[in-house]
Amino acid sequence: MEYITIPDIYCPFPSLISPYVEKLHQHCLRFAKQFHLVQQGKAFRHFSTCRFAWFVARVYPFAEFDDLTLIADWNCIFFLFDNQLDEGNIRKQPERIQLAIEHLIAIMSDPSITPQSPIAEAFADFWQRTVHNTNPDWQRRFIDSMAKYLFACLWQAQNHVQGHIPDVDTYVEKRRLAAATLPVLDLIDIALRITLPPHVYESQELQSLRLITANMVCWVNDLYSLPKELAHGDTHNLVVILQHAHKCSLDDAIYHTCRMIEDEVRLFIDIEQHLPHFS
């Protein structure tokens, strides 16, 4: 495989982590066992080494432990769901993916639906607990974010089967949806025990910050996952998309990606410094 060098990425933000991370890790292991999300033995050891708790502890460093466990449960469920789409046989079967997606969305709308898989059962449990701790406005937002994420996963699977490489603008839009960044951002409300009123949540400034954050997360991830995607022939990576669109070298596409990330970071800081004062 071609050796890949990733330049320094502009990120002038402090690195924080929850003090509950080790305790949260043990919770994730128990949760995976409880709902049979992974098999024992090698699969379970691999799940443990993925250290999902560290991701959650870094994204939500100020959350109380009980809130962190709820958020971690969601992350475990959908990291494993995403892993099935990336590496499992279902990846080549968009029809099966669509049925699984529709089932998960239905669970959020109708609590009487019987879950049809371990992932669905774990998600139903998560959703029942979440409904008791959130208001209807937040629930509608989260359902919308989840639907966008799940159907973007379907779009990605269809592209893989058809060998289709999307244009840059389409990829950027769909990538931030398929990466589940919007549900991850929605869960900040639970982590901080806040409820943003509609006029704040829907403001142009806040929505811009959400999209910029989603872009930064996805594009940085694309840089670090590039060797894996190249090895698997997966074209859903911004570097690959830029290389294809601009007919440039891989190094030039990597450099272009880093510049795009820096531009987004600087735009985020500028918007943040000029946020309006909400009542």
Q: Please mark out the parts with pLDDT under 50 across 5 or more consecutive residues, or reply none.
A: none
Q: Could you give the distance between the termini?
A: 55 Å
| Residue-averaged pLDDT | 93
Structural category is mainly alpha
The radius of gyration over CA amounts to 19 Å
* Beta-strand residue fraction: under 5%
**Morphology call:** globular
SSE order? HHHHHHHHHHHHHH
Helix content: over 70%
Largest sheet: none
In total, the number of strands is 0
Number of helices: 14
What does this structure look like?
- The chain has 279 residues and is mainly α.
- Helix content is 71%, strand content 0%.
- It is built from 14 helices and no strands.
- It has helices at 21-34, 42-50, 52-59, 65-87, 94-109, 118-131, 136-162, 168-178, 181-186, 188-192, 198-201, 204-232, 238-246, 250-273.
- Helix 13 packs across helix 14 (250-273).
- The longest helix is centred in the last third of the chain and has 29 residues, at 204-232.
- The mean pLDDT is 93.
